[in-house]
Structures are given as structure tokens and as C-alpha cells.
From TrEMBL:
ATP binds at G388, E389, P390, D412, T413, W414, W415, Q416, T417, D503, R518, R529. GO terms for biological process: acetyl-CoA biosynthetic process from acetate. Residues 26-83 form the Acetyl-coenzyme A synthetase N-terminal domain. The lineage of its organism: Bacteria, Pseudomonadati, Pseudomonadota, Alphaproteobacteria, Rhodobacterales. NCBIfam families: Ac_CoA_lig_AcsA (TIGR02188), PRK00174.1 (NF001208). Gene3D superfamilies: 3.30.300.30, N-terminal domain of ligase-like. This is Acetyl-coenzyme A synthetase. The keyword Ligase applies.
Length: 652
């Protein structure tokens, strides 16, 4: 048994005393949620305001060929009204969004629920004026500014489906997503300041739109005032137009199952999938998990440091907090600008009570030294959270001691773009934590460990297997945009009757879950999900490259780094220049987050006689783990392996 399995951290008594859920209540509610999901979720569904109340609760089928997931299906609601309008009677003057700009010397904004209402209505009226209708897709490619949230909520208000593309993605990646979802319009900004640098979002959008239908309109938020090019008739100045349209826009009644948004995410094969989330089930689940996992109480200031371009930003900057009438903090910058104390400076400045970030950020800041934390008064913090990847015990201890001063429970939340909200996570007043474990399932979530080869359910408490979920929960994705068959194949085919997560997992004798990482060809680099296939296809699109294979390897700060084996065309010779050229190439094809950390020239790749690349071997070489190469006898040419080992990057 690992030491961390024995190291149990209960929340302080003072925390438990005020917590929404204590240990006894967790047990009782969890049992109720799996014994009678309909009754349990009928009650939780009432967290939302319904225009027409639902009479049906759960209607889900995981059978291959018939996969269908519906929650509250006959209910009618509007997501924006739930996030804004219903709070106006009691908290119109309360701050809904605190916006902290990239430059600490620039003023922060405090946007009240009343102001949020007006801004979202005006934004919605701008969308309507551009012909955006219910069910139309709107791509949002934005900096971390309030207008990104206005755009999301404006779509929700009129029943349009938004699809946010992370501002770090390249024009090509943006164009692919605009085309895949058939967007009618893109919302962007002139430029995006981050860490003192600027990303040219409008010019990226201009480049992307060259590959899209000429009917796609472009709404531009002039945020920095930087010089941009302009196409009359296509480009619209949103801020100017918001001033001219009506300040009110009635929320459109939507079915609970109408899609709220599409978010593209990487899988083990092929191009990114458009994950589709619903309106009713998603919002109820985001709201409930936000309240209970973070033990959010009225008046608290909640900060999730993710970008709205990822699901974490959707559920825990915008939808969950605002559905709960919370004050949510949105940060434009990065943790290390202007110095490595920025996160803590912002926590102190705005009196943050719950802080939620990724282990990669914690590791990076830990490396800068504790003095950056100690400079700031962190007495407002009551709870800390992590998401995106397993947290190593050293980083956990540092977060706990240096940031939380040993008095803030740490919620290590396991979930996915596909799940909409937290799945396995401590409820802080109920479940003592263990460093590195996501602990126990959230209400209604039934995790199972399966034997990877046979798919049999492992009944022993202490066990290891692949992680699957036995039944539906309201926040579950409904389909892959435009490709329901792919949805079924990806998540329901390999282990019939279950939702397969793609993660490996261990369960200890106390029934705690420990995520061990992806078991498929998905990389997790600094908490960002990436398919090896995507990076490979970017590499082979370069004229000098004949073939490429990409694997992950352990990286101290990023969790995983990207290791690329590249076979060049016959007439090409390896050089440092070419290596740099390939790095730049991948940055422009996908975005900076996909840049390979190490490129190894590989005269040959290990392949089976039928031509399949044996990634298992490449992974082992990248990990420097030559003893465990396994059986190489099925290789067409076993000598390529010796050559690859001989030339491994960063030996030692
Ligand atoms: C990984 C992010 C360990 C996991 C919300 C999952 C985690 C993938 C954790 C989803 C955690 C997420 N501990 N691993 N607490 N949270 N992961 O879709 O491999 O960007 O499958 O969603 O991140 O990444 P995604």
C-alpha cells in the first residue's frame, strides 16, 4: 500500500460544521441517488426554474445501437434566465462576475447581476440582428473577458448553440471547428492580452474564414483597440452595436434536451469530436456540483482559473456559479505574470474563498518558491480544488501547506468534457481526502472497474482496472455533433452496457478511487487534452516528413510531454533547423499547446508485419524504460528498436 493511501485528511471541524453535506448525509444521499435516481433527480431538477415543469426524469439507454440519453425531457426552461433573470429579485446589485485583467495595474471590473442582464440582453439582440436563430451555431474565439460570458449567455438566451474554441488554437483548428458545426457566425476580439503578450485573434479569424463559407459573419469585440483589418458587410463592431439595440431581450423557452453547447475535444483517433451538452440536465448538474463540491455559500467569491475555452470554464466559471447566484471571478492573465505571485495576489485582492486550478499550475508555481505565496494574505481561502490530471503528492502537500495553511480541504475532482461536471470528487465536509485520490463518486455516479481485456466487472474493493460508469447522470454528453455513431463507438462499444471513460483507475481498500491516467492514445499535457493522432497528422502534413508517431512521456511540470518520432523523406537530412521548423509548423497547424517537447529522428518506426506502429514500444523508449519493451518478435524489423534506443532524446 502506498503511504498516501494511509494519509487521510479530514476537513477541520469548523469547516464541517458549516458544510452543505457531512459524512452521514453523503452516505444517505448517495444511497438514495442510486436506489431511486428518478426520485433523487426529480428533486434536484427543481434547483432550476422551469417554464414548463418536467414530468419525466431519467430516460437513458447505454445499449450499443440504441444509445440515447435524456433527462427532464418534457421540461421547458431557459438557461440564461436561470443564470441571470431569476436572481434579479434578490441579488440585482450583487456582483455576478469579478473580472481581473492581465495587467494588475489596470482596474478590475465588478459586474452586477443587473448589469449582466443588460449586457447579455444587448448581446443577444446583436446576435438576432445578424440573423442568428434558435438552433444556429455560434463559434466563440475570445480572450478571457466578460464579453466571452455575455456571448455564451446571449446564445443560451435565444436558443443558439455556442461552440467555444480556445484562443490558443490556430486559424486552421478554428476553421475546422467552424466548418464541422456549420457555424453561422464567429465572435472574436481584436487581440487577447495574456502574460503581457498579445494574441492576434481577429487576424487569426480572418485567416480561418478564408477556409469557411463566405456567409459566416464575424462579430468583433474591440477590447485592446489594437489595429485590425476589417471587411465591411462581414465584420460587426459588437460594442458599438450593443449601444444601439434594445436593452431587453426575452429569454426563449427551450426544451431541456435542446443542445446548449458543442465543445470540441480530442479522442484517441481522428479529428476532434464535437461533444454536445444539453440545456436542462447539464445546468442542473453543473449547478449542483458547483454548490456541493466547492461547498459554495451565498456571498462567497469563487475563482476557477481555467479558460472558458475548456469545459472547466464552461461549468465552473459561467454556468454552475451563475445558476447558483454566485460571484465568479474571471481572470484574463496567467499565473506567472507579472510574477509568480499573481494567483495569490488576486486571491488576496478579491477575497477569494474557493480557488480551483490545475496541478500543472501548482507544480510550476511550487518550482518558483514559497516566498511568492507568503507575500500575500490568503486568509479568505476556505477551500482549494484541482482538476485535469492526477496530482502528485509533493504538489498536493505544497498546495495544502503553503497555500491552504493546512486548513483548506482540497477537492481533487475527476471528470471530463464528456461528463459535464464532477464525477469522482470529495465532498469537502463529508469525505476525508488522501493526496492524489479523487476519493468517492458524486451523487448518482456509479463507477465500476473493468478488467481491461475481458470487460468483466471487478468486484473486489481494492483493485485496478479501466474506469467505466454504469448508469447515466444528468450532465452526461448526449451525442457527438453530426455523428451519433461515433458517440456510440467511442464510449459504449468496447465495454457493452457501460460508459467507458478512457482512464485507468485503482480503488483502495477504503473504496477511494485513484485515477492512473489515460489508457488510450490521448495525451494530457498541462491538463490539456490532445490526441496523438492530431499531432501526427500535423507533422506528416509537413513536406519533409514521411511518417510520424507521437507518444507522451513523463514531464515534471506538464505532467506529460509530447515526444515525436519523425521519419523524414528520403531526400531530407536531419538538422536543428528542421527540428525548429517542425515545432513552428505544429504550432501553426494546431496551436502552441501541441508543440512537441522532443523530436527524435527515426529512420524507421517499429511496426508489425501488417504495418501497425507499435506505440507501446515507442512509449517505453520515450519513458526511458527499456527493460519493459515486451515482446518485439512480432516486429517486421526488430533492429529499428535498437536504433531508436541508441538515439533517444535527453538520455539519462
Ligand atoms: C484527466 C477536464 C486525474 C483524465 C475536466 C480525464 C484527471 C481527462 C482528473 C479529461 C483528476 C481530469 N485526476 N485525472 N482529478 N481530472 N483528469 O476532457 O484523464 O479536458 O479523462 O476534462 O483529464 O480531460 P478534459
Amino acid at each position: 500500500m502506498l503511504d498516501t493511501e494511509k494519509s487521510s485528511h479530514p476537513a477541520p471541524d469548523s469547516f464541517v460544521a458549516k458544510a452543505h453535506v457531512d459524512a452521514a448525509r453523503y452516505e444517505q444521499m448517495y444511497q438514495a441517488s442510486v436506489d431511486d435516481p428518478d426520485a433523487f433527480w426529480a428533486k434536484e431538477g427543481k434547483r432550476l426554474d422551469w417554464i414548463e415543469p418536467f414530468t419525466k426524469v431519467k430516460n437513458a439507454n447505454f445499449t450499443l445501437g440504441e444509445v440515447s440519453i435524456k433527462w427532464f425531457e418534457d421540461g421547458v426552461l431557459n438557461v440564461a434566465a436561470n443564470c441571470i433573470d431569476r436572481h434579479l429579485a434578490t441579488r440585482a446589485d450583487q456582483t455576478a462576475i469579478i473580472w481581473e485583467p492581465d495587467e494588475p495595474t489596470d482596474p478590475a471590473l465588478h459586474i452586477t447581476y443587473r448589469e449582466l442582464h443588460e449586457n447579455v440582453c444587448r448581446f443577444a439582440n446583436v446576435l438576432l440582428s445578424q440573423g442568428v436563430m434558435r438552433g444556429d451555431r455560434v463559434v466563440i474565439y475570445m480572450p478571457m473577458i466578460p464579453e466571452a460570458a455575455y456571448a455564451m449567455l446571449a446564445c443560451a438566451r435565444i436558443g443558439a448553440i455556442h461552440s467555444i474554441v480556445f484562443a490558443g488554437f490556430s486559424p486552421d483548428a478554428l476553421a475546422n471547428r467552424i466548418n464541422d458545426c456549420g457555424a453561422k457566425l464567429v465572435v472574436t476580439a481584436d487581440t487577447a492580452p495574456r502574460g503581457g503578450k498579445r494574441t492576434a485573434l481577429k487576424s487569426n479569424t480572418d485567416a480561418a474564414l478564408l477556409h469557411c463559407s463566405d456567409k459566416v459573419r464575424c462579430l468583433v469585440v474591440k477590447h485592446t483597440g489594437d489595429q485590425i483589418s476589417w471587411i465591411d458587410g462581414r465584420d460587426v463592431d459588437v460594442k458599438a452595436m450593443m449601444k444601439t439595440v434594445a436593452p431587453d431581450c426575452p429569454p426563449r423557452p427551450m426544451g431541456a434536451e435542446d443542445p446548449l453547447f458543442i465543445l470540441y475535444t480530442s479522442g484517441s483517433t481522428g479529428k476532434p469530436k464535437g461533444v454536445v451538452h444539453s440545456s436542462g440536465g447539464y445546468l442542473a448538474y453543473a449547478a449542483m456540483t458547483h454548490q456541493l463540491t466547492f461547498d459554495y455559500h451565498d456571498g462567497d467569491v469563487f475563482w476557477c482559473s481555467a479558460d472558458v475555452g475548456w469545459v472547466t470554464g464552461h461549468s465552473y466559471i459561467v454556468y454552475g456559479p451563475l445558476a447558483n447566484g454566485a460571484t465568479t471571478l474571471m481572470f484574463e492573465g496567467v499565473p506567472t505574470y507579472p510574477d509568480a505571485g499573481r494567483f495569490w495576489e488576486v486571491c488576496a485582492k478579491h477575497g477569494v474563498n474557493q480557488f480551483y486550478t490545475a496541478p500543472t499550475a501548482i507544480r510550476a508555481l511550487m518550482g518558483q518558491g514559497s516566498e511568492w505565496v507568503e507575500k500575500h494574505d490568503l486568509s479568505s481561502l476556505r477551500l482549494l480544488g484541482t482538476v485535469g490530471e492526477p496530482i502528485n503528492p509533493e504538489a498536493w502537500e505544497w498546495y495544502n501547506e503553503t497555500v491552504g495553511k493546512g486548513r483548506c480541504p482540497i477537492v481533487d475532482t475527476w471528470w471530463q468534457t464528456e461528463t459535464g461536471g464532477h464525477m469522482i470528487t470529495p465532498l469537502p465536509g463529508a469525505i476525508p481526502t488522501k493526496p492524489g485520490s479523487a476519493t468517492k463518486p458524486f451523487f448518482g455516479v456509479q463507477p465500476v472497474l473493468l478488467e481491461p481485456n475481458t470487460g468483466e466487472v471487478i468486484d473486489d474493493t481494492a483493485a485496478e482496472g479501466v474506469l467505466a460508469i454504469a448508469d447515466s447522470w444528468p450532465g452526461q454528453m448526449r451525442t457527438v455533433w453530426g455523428d451519433h455513431a461515433r458517440f456510440e463507438e467511442t464510449y459504449f462499444q468496447q465495454y457493452p452496457g457501460y460508459y467507458f471513460s478512457g482512464d485507468g483507475c485503482r480503488r483502495d481498500a477504503d473504496g477511494y478511487y485513484w485515477i492512473t491516467g489515460r489508457v488510450d492514445d490521448v495525451l494530457n499535457v498541462s491538463g490539456h487534452r490532445m490526441g496523438t493522432a492530431e499531432v501526427e497528422s500535423a507533422l506528416v502534413a509537413h513536406k519533409a516528413v514521411a511518417e510520424a508517431a507521437v507518444v507522451g512521456y513523463p514531464h515534471d511540470v506538464k505532467g506529460q510531454g509530447i515526444y515525436a518520432y519523425v521519419t523524414l523523406m528520403n531526400n531530407e537530412t536531419p538538422s536543428d533547423e528542421l527540428r525548429k521548423d517542425l515545432e513552428t509548423w505544429v504550432r501553426t497547424e494546431i496551436g502552441p499547446i501541441a508543440k512537441p517537447d522532443l523530436i527524435q529522428w527515426a529512420p524507421g518506426l517499429p511496426k508489425t508485419r501488417s504495418g501497425k506502429i507499435m506505440r507501446r514500444i515507442l512509449r517505453k523508449i520515450a519513458e526511458n524504460d527499456y527493460g519493459a519493451l515486451g515482446d518485439t518478435s512480432t516486429l517486421a524489423d526488430p533492429s529499428v528498436v535498437d536504433d531508436l534506443i541508441e538515439n533517444r532524446m535527453n538520455k539519462g
